[in-house]
Task: inverse folding
C-alpha cells in the first residue's frame, strides 16, 4: 500500500484532487482509501464514501490538527491496510501554515490555491518547501501571467518539487498526478520514519485553554516582539 500525504490551506482543493485521482484508480480496479484530519468538523469523509472509498475522519478539537495528525499516522496506516487498500490518501488541514506534516519516505503533496495571492508561497513555509509535488488549483480563475509568476515563486521556495496544474471541477491534471505518484516510493511502513521538519512548539497557556489576555495570564512558551525598539 502506498501512503500519500496531502496538505494545504482550507478550501484549496485537496479533497477534490484526491477524489479525481481515486476515481481513476477505481477505473483500473484498484481500491484507494482516505482519512481526513480536521479541527471542528468535516463532510469530506462522506464525500469519499459516496464514491465507494473506505473513509475515516478525525477531528482535533482544541489541538493543533497537524500534531493530532502525526500522532495518529501510524494507526492510520494500519487502518488502511486493514481495508485492503492499494493507496491511502491522508489529508490534513494544515491551518496555521507553520506545520510541516510531510514525512520522510512518504510521498508529499501540497495544494496551492491560485487565488491565494502571489505572496502565498513565501507564507506557506515548510509545508510547501518540503513537498514532492505542488498542485496548483483554480488556475482557470487567474491570468496566465499570474499563474506563471506564482509557479516561479513556488520554484524559488522549493526548486525540487514537481508543479502540476489541477482543475478540481473537471479533474484535469488528475492523471498527471497519478502518474507522478506511481513514480514515487511505496513506503513499506512507518517504522523509524521521521518528520521532514519539526512541528511548532504549542505549549503556551493559550494552548491549554486560557482565554484571559495580559502578561500575568501568559506562561510557557511565549514570545514577544521587541517592543522597546518599536
Result:
Amino acid at each position: 500500500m502506498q501512503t500519500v500525504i496531502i496538505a494545504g490551506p482550507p478550501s484549496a482543493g485537496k479533497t477534490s484532487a484526491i477524489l479525481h485521482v481515486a476515481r481513476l484508480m477505481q477505473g483500473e480496479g484498484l481500491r484507494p482509501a482516505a482519512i481526513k484530519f480536521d479541527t471542528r468538523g468535516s463532510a469530506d469523509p462522506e464525500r469519499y464514501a459516496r464514491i465507494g472509498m473506505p473513509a475515516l475522519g478525525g477531528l482535533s478539537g482544541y489541538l493543533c490538527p497537524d500534531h493530532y495528525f502525526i500522532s495518529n499516522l501510524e494507526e492510520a496506516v494500519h487502518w488502511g491496510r486493514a481495508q485492503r487498500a492499494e493507496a491511502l490518501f491522508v489529508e490534513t488541514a494544515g491551518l496555521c501554515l507553520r506545520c510541516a506534516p510531510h514525512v520522510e519516505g512518504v510521498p508529499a503533496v501540497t495544494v496551492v490555491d491560485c487565488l491565494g495571492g502571489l505572496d502565498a508561497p513565501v507564507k506557506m513555509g515548510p509545508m510547501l518547501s518540503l513537498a514532492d509535488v505542488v498542485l496548483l488549483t483554480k488556475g482557470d480563475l487567474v491570468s496566465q501571467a499570474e499563474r506563471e509568476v506564482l509557479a516561479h515563486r513556488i520554484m524559488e521556495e522549493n526548486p525540487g518539487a514537481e508543479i502540476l496544474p489541477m482543475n478540481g471541477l473537471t479533474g484535469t491534471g488528475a492523471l498527471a498526478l497519478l502518474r507522478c505518484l506511481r513514480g514515487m516510493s511505496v513506503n513499506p511502513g512507518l517504522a523509524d520514519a521521521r518528520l521532514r521538519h519539526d512541528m511548532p512548539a504549542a505549549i503556551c497557556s493559550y494552548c491549554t485553554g486560557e482565554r484571559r489576555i495580559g502578561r500575568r495570564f501568559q506562561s510557557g512558551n511565549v514570545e514577544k516582539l521587541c517592543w522597546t525598539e518599536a
Q: What stands out?
A: The mean pLDDT is 89. The radius of gyration is 18 Å. Helices lie at 14-27, 44-50, 65-82, 120-124, 126-129, 144-157, 174-182. The longest strand covers residues 32-38.
